[in-house]
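EI: anyone free to look at a 430-residue chain?
SC: sure, send it
EI:
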Amino acid sequence: MKNKMEKIVSLAKSRGFIYPGSEIYGGLANTYDYGPLGAELLRNIKNLWWERFVEQREEIFGIHTSILMNPKVWESSGHVESFVDPLVECKKCHKRFREDHLKDKAKCPDCGGELTEPKLFQGMFKTQIGATENRGAEIYLRPETAQGMFVNFKNVINTQRPSLPFGLAQIGKGFRNEVTLGNFIFRTLEFDMMEIEYFIGPKEGEKYFEKWKKEMWKWLIDLGIDEKKLRWREHEKDERSHYSDRTEDIEYKFPFGWGELYGLAYRSDYDLKNHSEKSGEDLRYHPEEGEPFFPHVVEPTFGANRTFLITLLDGYNEEEGRVFLKLHPKLAPYKAAIFPLLANKPELVKKAREIYEDLIKKFPVAWDERGNIGKRYFAQDEIGTPWCITVDFDTLNDKSVTIRDRDTKKQDRIAIDKIASFLENKISGK
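SC: here you go
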C-alpha cells in the first residue's frame, strides 16, 4: 500500500508536474525538473506571493539580485566561516548524517552502527570565474537571497527614499550542498526562495516578529492548507544560524513527520553592520531627525518548492474511485477545461473550440476531446482543474453549457456569454 508521498511522486510524474532531473542519463540525485503543469503551479505560487507581499503593500519593494556575488560578501556575512555542518558517517552502512539532526550522537539511526567523529561540511557550492581553471577566481553560489538585498540597501535608500519600517523582497534561486537529502522535493540542492528583509527600528524586533508570524500563518490558511497540519517551533540557541537572535519555523506534518516549511528570523543589525564595516560604505539609515543608525531586520523566508509540495499533499483526495487535487483556483494550472460532449460530432467540436479560443485569451484553460466524458472529468480532477465545461447538443439550441465543479461534482447550466464572469468571480472568491 503506497503512502501519500509515494502517490504524490507517482502522480507528479505521470501528469507532468515534476520529473526526475537528467532522467535519460540516470538522473542526478536530489534534482528535479518541473513539467508543463508543475511550471504553471510553481509560477502561480510565486505570482500570488509577489502580488500579496509586494504589489499590494506600499512599504515593500521588489528587487532581483544576482546569484553570483563578490566572494567578500560571503566572508563579511559570516557564511564562509559559519555556514558549515557537522557531518558524521556510519562505520557499518556508510550513510552520512548531520550530527546536529541526530538524537543519539553515537549510533546510526538506520542500522545502529557506530558513528565517526564529526567533520565540518561546507554548505555552499563553490565555482570559478575566469578564462582558465587554474587562474580563475573562486566564488560561491548563493545559499540565500538575503545578502543581495543587504548589499543593495544603500541603493534602494538613495533611489526610493523609503521611511522605516520598509521591506525588500525577492524571489530567486538558492543552492545548498546539503548532507541530508531526500523526501522528493522537500530538500534539494537547488531551490526557489521567496524572501523578505523587513527593516525596522532597533527596539521594534519583538513587535514586528509577532506581526510577521501572523502574516505568514494567514498566507498558508488563505492557500487552503489544513491548519491542523501546521505548527510553530522555536529554535534552540545552539541550532540558530550565526546571524540570528531568534528563529522560529512553521512546520508541516509531512507523511515522513514534522518538517520545516518556512522560517522567520530576527537578524538584528548583524548584516548591515558587518557589510558597512568590511566594505567601508555607510549603510546606516539617516532619519530626518536624530542620529544615523543601523536598522534591525526581521526576515520571513518562504520556500516556493515546499509550498508546491504541501499544496499537492494537502490537496490530494481519493473518493469513490477517483483522485482529485483540491487546489486553490488561483493556484490550479488550468482554471477550466473545455470539452465537446462527443469528439466525432463536428458541430459540437466547432462550438467547443470557439468557446475555448475565447476563454484562453483571459484564462489558462485546457482543451480535451480524448475518450469518453467521464474519463475526461477524472483526468482533469487528477490535475486539479476546478471546473469542466461541456458543450452538448442543447448548447446548439439554448447557447448554454454544462459546468461541473471539481470538488462536489455538481453540474449547472450557464449561458456561454456568462462563462468568463463566472470564472472571474469564482477565482477571486466572490
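EI: The two ends are 40 Å apart (CA to CA).
SC: 👍
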